[in-house]
Amino acid sequence: MAVKRRVKIITDSGCDLPEGWEKTYGIDIMSFEIDLDDITYRERIDVTSKEFYALMNNSSSIPTTNQILVERFEAKFRQCLSDGEREVLMILINSKGSQTYSNALAARKNLEDNGELGSMKVHIIDSRTYSVGYGFAIVEAVKKLDAGQSMDLVLDYLDDWFSCAEVYILPLSLRHMKKSGRITAAAAFLGELMGLKPVISLIDGVSEVLKKVRGENALLDEATKIIKASATPETPWLAVCADEPEFYERFVKRMTKELGRPPAIEAYIGGVVGCNTGPKVAAVVIKGKHRGQMKVDN
Q: CB of 121 within 8 A of CB of 298?
């Protein structure tokens, strides 16, 4: 009989963990809902990432995402209480791009105010990043907790990672980014008519065009230089792709050679993140310089 973990781990489907990892590591993933062509899909439940991109590629409309509402978080916390959980660690998508984090805080407060929460501790963390930028950290937190580390040490680890995580995006098309408006640097980019492609950083929810180049080879060259210069030596890096496998494979091969180690995680960009990046993109997450403490509400 399996021993019950002393801490319940909860996240949202924007974490982009590879399929099956939630079962392997005992992670409760709450699905975002995505609207496309008047149909609502529950990420990781109704469609896989690859299936969603097939739907997106065959649609002329831009999909939209729905935040996880307060009521769903309240129901999740009540389920934890019913299951006898004593401590919950919830790690959520960047609060600058979604109200999900704020909704989780509101749900916990509602239960506290009603006297329902009792002695169950609920830690809610704003990851300040996207995709496997927090998916990786969740898995590492699970490993540390299962190895017997204290919650304080795990929170210190998460603070360090989220205060250093940097995302670098290599888009081959900016159509979805511009229409979604979520990645403002892409929306302001004016070089497409000249055949230019940008290297975009996404740090603490703020995007910036770092370089404009012509052609995929130049894009790989410049991105590799920028990322290598920014990455803390001998730390994990993570790779994600959407619907551009050939370009992604070239990118990962270059990064592996330059950094001297393969990615700690390779994953497919899920629908929630893909709604804003579009299908023609590859990206990496690295550990850069420390920028300050994360948001954690205990």
A: yes
